[in-house]
Specification:
The protein is α+β, with helices and mostly antiparallel strands. The chain folds into two domains: 283 residues, Spore Coat Polysaccharide Biosynthesis Protein SpsA, Chain A, CATH 3.90.550; 133 residues, Sandwich (Jelly Rolls). The protein is built from eleven helices and 21 strands. It is globular and about 65 Å long. The mean pLDDT is 92.
Amino acid sequence: MSGPPLSIEAVVLGRNDEYEPNWQQKLFASIAYNRARFEGSAVDYRVAFVEWNPPRDRPLIAPELVSKFPFLRAITVDADVHDALCTSRSLAMMLNFSLNCALRTSTSDFCLISAGDLFLQDALAGAIKKNGLARNCLYRAERVNIRDDLDFASATKEVIEDPANIVSVNSCTEPPYDRAPYTHACGDFLLVDRLTMAGLRGFDEGIRFARMHLDSRFCRTAMYAGLDCKLIGRIFHINHTKSYTVLGEKYPDQQYDYELGLPYLNSRDWGLADYDWTQTGERLWRVSCLQGFKEGGIPEQFTRAERQVVNEVTSRVFAAREAEVLGERDENVVQLKDVGLSGLFVDDSWKGARVIAGSPPLIETVKDAWGYSAAVRLPQVAAIAKNGDGAIFLEVVVQVSVGTVGVGLVQNGEFAAERIQDEAMGVRRIVLKMPQGDVWLLVRNAQTNGTASRVNIHRIRLLRRSGPSQSIERLLMPIDS
């Protein structure tokens, strides 16, 4: 039995610089192998290859790939673009801009941030073919590093997945990486539907001096936007000497505090939209610096309805950013209303969940991953914002004693925002921007190992930041086209 028809586009980066011995041969083998995992199914697996900062003295890889694979498109980004954006002399490849230009121009149902030296697990592909994929969910896979001396051009799944060929595993099932969003070596498999990906705006373009941890920042921003997260299998990555897994602290990259400034939100011109795009052949594009005026616009394709969906996701990220900077002792913040903790309830369908009365009340969650466990209906913003200007926020003070939970706002059946909390965080103050309309505060189990979580809710109250709220309209995708 197969799932519904869908298309996935894997974004793969590269340049003709012999980053690793026989890298191009491995690239071709990887593309062919992963496409074969979906042959004869309802899943249309495609590839977008981005050739970033190509060496001026070497031929391009992109034209050969386009000629070889009819399911592949390619974007070459001039060295001059790299020089204009990069602030580090040690970086030849910028992951953020190179990935983003492909993500923004994709027309597939789902976008996969991938790499040219990895092979999809047969069971992972089988699960996608059988069950399909859901919107508003970040899919992750555990990375397994395999020997680099195999004959990849003719390798079968039995060879690729042979335990004897495994060098190491970047575990997503052992602490501290055994919880969503599974950030251990996460940059080789990040799968999200195209419209949600466009709303998130890809990797952080504000980091122009490093490539490390951009993937972790993306994962955490996706969680701020209220996405679900599922670990769906493994990928098999060719072990190589220049990877961070091997080099560790000797990896040639600039260190920075990658937990700061989250969630991030790229500008409306993300993905090199403000550069010159020229089609140079069938399924082949070139991005270059402007020469006095803009000749070609970015070839993105969104209908009016799709733009509205994209903007809804971007608005969630924007609201999360606003909430993150709301200080507990901010002079511009006033308390509006306490939400009674006695209103916490468990629906009959949430089997195993319960609210234990006390000061503070204790929520025991269901055992199912991402299972709804407790909720409380919140006052509508329109009813409490009559007297005074400013944005309305919900403050929740929680303490997880067992496991991991998600605490978020649900509107029309979808999360408008969510924060993931675990037992190591202690008592935490969560601030979420309130949307208009009928909204619920929901607690759900973020454990993925079949065990329940426990969390105390100390306080729920509504706050107002005085003065006009920041305007997001200038940041959103225009919908008049």
